[in-house]
Amino acid sequence: MNKSERDANGRFAAGSHGNARGRPKKAARLFTKDQVLEDILGILEEPVTVVWKGRKQQIPTIVGVYRQLCQKALSGDFRAIELVVKLRTQLTEERTKTIAALQETVISLRRSYAGKEMPDPVRALLVEAELRLARAEEYPAHPQSRSEEDQEIIMQAMVEAATRRHEQAMADDEEEHGIY
After folding, report:
1. CA geometry: angle at 91 spanning 52 and 79, to 5°?
2. Quick one: which of 9, 91, 109, 153 has the fewest CB in 10 Å?
3. What is the pLDDT of residues 81-106, one digit of tens each?
4. pTM of the predicted structure, to 2 decimals
C-alpha cells in the first residue's frame, strides 16, 4: 500500500482504494456424495418448533415431516395414505429382520458357550443383543416360528435382560436418592 494514495486526513483519493486485489474468494465447496448426505441428514435432524396437542415443542424436522404426512393421510390424501402404508410395511419388515438377527445372535452365543466361561467381549455382545431384543420385543411385530428349545433360549435371555434393566433402574434410583 502506498502512502501517497491517501490525502492528509488519511482518506484514499477518489478512484483508488487500499485493497487493490479485492476480497479473496472463498474456496469452492466440494459436493461429494458424503457431503450431500451429511447436509441432508443434518437438515432433517435440525429442531423445529411445532404446536402439538396445544403445546409448543421442539422436534427434529423429520419427525415434523412424518407427522404432516400422517395428517395428510388422515385427511384423505390418497398419495399420503399410500406413502404411509408403504413406509409402515417397509419399517415392519426391517424390524422383523432385525429381531430375527438378534434372536439368532442370542441363540448362537448361548449355544456356543453353554456350560463354558464366556470371554468378556462375547459377554458384552450377548448382553447388548439381549437388551436390544428385549426393547424390540416390547413392541412385537410378526412372531417368528422357532423350535421350543430356541423359544426357551429367547425367553431366558428376555428374563435376564429384564432383570438387568430392573437392577440398573434400582441402582440408578439408589444413586439418585442417596440410598446405599
Report:
1. 65
2. 9
3. 999 999 999 988 888 888 888 888 88
4. 0.52
